[in-house]
Amino acid sequence: MSRAPWIVTALAALGGVALVAAVALAPPPYAEATLAPADPVASVASATEAAAAPASGVVIGAPENSTIYDVATLTQIDVWSVTPAMPVDDDPFGPLTGELAQPLVAAPIFADPTGEPIGYLPREAAYGGTTVPVIAHDTHWVKVMLAGRQGVPPEGNAAQTVGWLRAADVELRPVAEYVEVQLAAHTIDIITDAGAERVADDFAWGKPATPTPVGRTFVMWTTVVPEFAYTQGHPLTYLGVQSPAMAGFDGGEAAVTAFHYYKVRSGDVSFGCIYLDAAATDRVAQLPPGTPVIIHP
């Protein structure tokens, strides 16, 4: 029986899920360069207690930070943002804590708990990405996966990004499931404490020139886009990681990985997304925002 990655220390045997390593993402068509972020909250206080205690994690002993920051002076970290100071995940197949975090209000994001904010995460955003998996939990801090890029290909690194949030700024809740994708074995499973549910035993993934990104990521946003005729009305499940090879897709400024329906759905034929049949597409779309996804080579 498969066990959750927050129980298993090493995840080398787990599979990941990656779909659209290049899917258009816009207000229906995901590729709108004119899309603007929501108005930032004027300020954020850090005096509210977190909603839940950590299940497990790493304690680094960073001191509490109770500074009130004006997030109007910070960049919103989302699928469109490019933030050179944001770290990329240095342990892409590492364990999780079994928690999801969502800001109580707009929460400052830190590259390091001892530094200054590099951006902020709103409680809600048009394209999701605000309910995020926790990968380490210190007394006063949580390290989370984030949407947004450190850099833009081909020069920059577009791998999964991470950052620190103050525990007092977020609501914490347990995560009940995760997705395990094995590219080489061509399998996708949804893992819970009850075991593994096989979602697909074949699918399409990225071409050598536009590979599906591997490592841990999460469900960012799920939506139906009628304008994308190739989906035949099925949802797209966008992930919090973008193409390692493309700066944008289909005229847009982002190249997001996603699970979605496509008529050709076997072999390395996609721009990085994972193409699924109708039943698998609809099943994956049932997963709540923040659900971890582990994509293995």
Question: How would you explain this protein's 3D organization?
Answer:
The protein is mainly beta and 297 residues long. The protein has two domains: 71-174, no CATH class; 178-296, L,D-transpeptidase catalytic domain-like, CATH 2.40.440. The protein has one helix at residues 278-284; strands at residues 99-103, 107-110, 117-121, 132-137, 141-146, 161-166, 170-174, 178-182, 187-192, 195-200, 204-206, 215-223, 236-242, 256-261, 267-270, 274-276, 292-296. The strands form four sheets. It has an eight-stranded mixed sheet. A hairpin with a 4-residue loop joins strand 8 (178-182) and strand 9 (187-192). 53% of the residues are buried.
Quick tags:
297 residues; mainly beta; eight-stranded mixed β-sheet; globular; five-stranded antiparallel β-sheet; 1 helix; L,D-transpeptidase catalytic domain-like
Provide the CATH superfamily of the largest domain.
Answer: L,D-transpeptidase catalytic domain-like
Cα-atom Rg, whole angstroms? 18 Å
Output the strand order for the largest sheet.
Answer: 10-9-8-17-12-13-14-16
Kindly state the number of beta strands. Answer: 17
| Fraction in beta strands | 25-35%
Q: Architecture of the largest domain, according to CATH?
A: Beta Barrel
CATH fold group of the largest domain: L,D-transpeptidase catalytic domain-like
Overall, the morphology is globular
pLDDT < 50 runs, ≥5 residues: 6-21, 24-57
